[in-house]
Amino acid sequence: MAGVGLLWSRMPEHVHEEARYIISSLVPMAMSYFNPYEQITVSEYGEERFRRNKMFGAVSTYLSRVCAGGACKLKAELCNNTKDDPVVTLDENQEVVDSFDGARMWWRLCPKASKNKGAITVSYYPGETDEPRCFRLVFHKRHRQLVLSSYLPSVVRRWRELTAKNRQRRLFTNHASEGNKSVWTSVPYNPPATFDMLAMDHAKKVDIMEDLTVFQKGKEYHSKVGKAWKRGYLLRGLPGTGKSTMIGAMANFLDYDVYDLDLISVKNNSELRKLFLDTTDKSIIVIEDIDAIEDELTTKRKGNKVVNGDDEIRDKHIYAGRVCRQER
Description:
- InterPro entries: AAA_N_dom, ATPase_AAA_core, Mitochondrial_chaperone_BCS1, P-loop_NTPase.
- The chain is of the alpha+beta class.
- It is built from ten helices and 14 strands.
- The protein has two domains: 130 residues, no CATH class; 155 residues, no CATH class.
- It starts with a helix and ends with a strand.
């Protein structure tokens, strides 16, 4: 051993670095070879951070309804104003065990973590220096094929069943969060409005409802012609003329969620793109006061107050609605 130590001390420094690199590469490989368990990570966001990973939501719903009873720490939230039953979800750093065809699976929810603890990092996209939350699935390597071909698809199927059974329309609004990024938050949405309540020409109401029905059944047509499955409407009028009521009636008629997009709080095109990508299927996207946005942005940049001459523009309250049925 003394001879080895003497030989090591006489070697050039670059040889030391190469040896350390080789050892650091071989040790994980050796450990993985002898470790009988494998791991799958389901991150909350994908590589580009532009869109929430649907698999993360599927796992969260599945574990909350199927496996949460085995966790020591849970979170409770009252999501439906018409029911007294809270929605219980898994808390961070909690582990639950699931079984499938005789195989045991271990799930853990890992919290958001900083990539550079103790360091100051400057990023073009605020808040993206943090690692997103993730679920980690651990299983024995002999169950690898079972997990990939059967277990994970069964989790997705169960998630779809639970979502369809407990579906409730929601109203989403965007606001600034950590790092001043604009993100969606939601509340239950049960508007009382219907087309029967709208004070407008009956023939026009029938035309709109027929147009919406054709849109709902247009998946095959849009796929055939290569067009995005979406529909646009422009609602124009003074405050109190029924634009919000019309949107509520459309949401009830289609059974769609509503996304109310405030462009003033969106700082750049990348943030706007992320917001659009983070919307769901079967949704109505509402952009309010598009006639006044340019003036408000100009005023905001200059730091000036709105002059009286802009009052007429503010009163128009134009809504641009986009009805989306499929992935964009």
